[in-house]
Write a structure and sequence with these properties.
Tetracycline Repressor, domain 2; flat
């Protein structure tokens, strides 16, 4: 008779997430996670079939608590802003798992729930057909990409300072833009970029662009 299981899926996912946060996704091997749990690699296979299943559990641990109910009665733009900011907040503490939102987008419950909520808002606003598909992919790409940039290359980081110090003779616009950008708060950067994307969606519906401050 097989021994009864003593670990929950949540405990395994938490151990794997700890490894990913520390060593990156490449370091989140079955062996490393088993070591984190204090068991043999073969023992871990009694709980998860393979690395792909383990990644799915990790992603659901991060995204499972995301509230996908947008505020009722709000304009479609504001509802999408709320959904985008909730997704960003969920992954902010674990940016190394962001690639999993792409590789597991077809079957990860957290990603699918968020996508369904976004599509519901777009549909209610009148965005349908291929335009709706493009809008969903654009919003997903923005949230993932902006969050990665925030953690891997923040405007407050050394990269911006290096660009700002470039000579005006060679890169006048890059240098000037970097000087303007280095004081921009990450929350404002994310929100304004999202507003520009939503302006494009709103334009297809005949709406005027937002008047957000630069």
């Amino acid at each position: 008779m097989p021994r009864p299981r003593s670990l929950t899926t949540g405990q395994i996912a938490a151990a794997a997430l700890a490894v990913a946060d520390r060593d990156g996704l490449a370091g989140m091997t079955m062996r490393a996670v088993a070591r984190e749990l204090g068991m043999s690699t073969m023992a871990l296979y009694r709980y998860v079939a393979d690395r792909e299943e383990l990644e799915g559990h990790v992603l659901e641990l991060v995204l499972g608590a995301v509230d996908t109910a947008p505020p009722p009665g709000a304009h479609w733009r504001e509802r999408l802003v709320v959904l985008a900011e909730r997704m960003r907040a969920a992954v902010a503490g674990h940016p190394r798992v962001l690639p999993l939102t792409v590789t597991h987008r077809h079957h990860a419950p957290g990603v699918l729930r968020w996508g369904e909520a976004v599509l519901a808002v777009l549909t209610e606003a009148g965005v349908t057909g291929t335009a709706r598909a493009v809008a969903l992919r654009a919003l997903t790409a923005y949230v993932i990409g902006a969050t990665q940039q925030e953690h891997l290359g923040p405007l407050s980081g050394a990269g911006t300072e290096a660009i700002a110090a470039l000579t005006a003779a060679d890169f006048p616009l890059m240098a000037a833009t970097a000087r303007d950008a280095r004081g921009l708060a990450v929350e404002r950067e994310f929100r304004r970029g999202l507003e520009l994307l939503l302006d494009g969606i709103g334009g297809s519906l005949g709406e005027r662009p937002s008047t957000g401050a630069e």
